[in-house]
Specification:
The structure is a single chain. By secondary structure, the protein is an alpha/beta fold. It has one domain (25-220): Glutaredoxin (3-Layer(aba) Sandwich), CATH 3.40.30. The chain contains five helices and seven strands. It has helices at residues 8-17, 95-109, 129-139, 153-163, 203-217, and strands at 63-65, 71-73, 81-87, 115-121, 146-149, 184-188, 194-199. It has a five-stranded mixed β-sheet, covered by helices on one side. Strands 1-2 form a two-stranded antiparallel ribbon. It starts with 7 loop residues before the first helix and ends with a helix.
Length: 221
């Protein structure tokens, strides 16, 4: 419904409930989050203990290096909920805003050991450990909470396109030589299943992500 067709009373309610800067996503829109298995992000409403999940899409094994030079694998995230994105340190466009918003997640869950953040460099040939260290220091990235990852380019691009489905033009065949650039944040549960995708440039979307992480946590309590 377009705003000009709202009644005066409804307009008053919208204005009074939507103050600038206020966190508008206090709760998830649902009691449990759906599961996703392909690039259209069509939700599957399954119970967390459903037998169907035994063969359901999940993030595969990987082996990458973080800003400390430490190896990070899927085993490093056992039992963890995490948020994943794709960036590069020399990006002048969307990446700084994405990093700022990922920083909001870091601040919100800094003391919560069940939550991790992963940012994969899409220019790993440039973003070596030293570059990631410098970026982490400049952006206030806490290594115990937030991994900035580099490594094999094909591994990273396959993860982004074939596992996290982060690009909006999925279905179009691309090679690893074609640049991967996306603003999406992807929410992964403790069993490496995709549970949500969010616009990493949008504060309201990030607020919804925070709420959804809290909902997802209830599954492992």
């Amino acid at each position: 419904m377009r705003t000009k067709y709202l009644t005066p009373l409804l307009l008053l309610l919208v204005v009074s409930c939507s103050k600038p800067g206020e966190n508008q996503a206090q709760n998830s829109r649902v009691e449990t989050l759906p599961f996703y298995k392909e690039a259209t992000f069509t939700p599957d409403w399954l119970e967390p203990d459903s037998e169907e999940l035994q063969d359901y899409h999940k993030i595969p094994a990987f082996n990458l290096i973080n800003q400390l030079g430490d190896t990070v694998t899927e085993a490093s995230l056992t039992g963890k909920i995490y948020v994943s994105d794709f960036f590069f340190t020399t990006c002048p466009g969307i990446c700084p805003k994405m990093t700022t918003n990922m920083g909001l997640l870091q601040e919100e869950f800094l003391e919560d050991d069940d939550i991790m953040l992963l940012s994969h460099s899409v220019t790993p040939e440039i973003d070596n450990v030293i570059m990631l260290q410098n970026y982490a220091e400049a952006k206030g990235v806490k290594a115990e909470k937030w991994h900035l990852l580099t490594g094999d380019r094909k591994t990273i691009y396959d993860l982004g396109r074939k596992s996290y489905f982060v690009e909006e033009d999925q279905g179009v065949d691309k090679t690893e030589d074609e640049f991967l650039h996306t603003e999406n944040f992807v929410l992964i549960d403790q069993n490496r299943h995709i549970r949500g995708i969010y616009n990493g440039l949008n504060k309201a979307s990030v607020s919804q992500l925070i709420a959804d992480i809290k909902t997802l946590k209830k599954e492992i309590l």
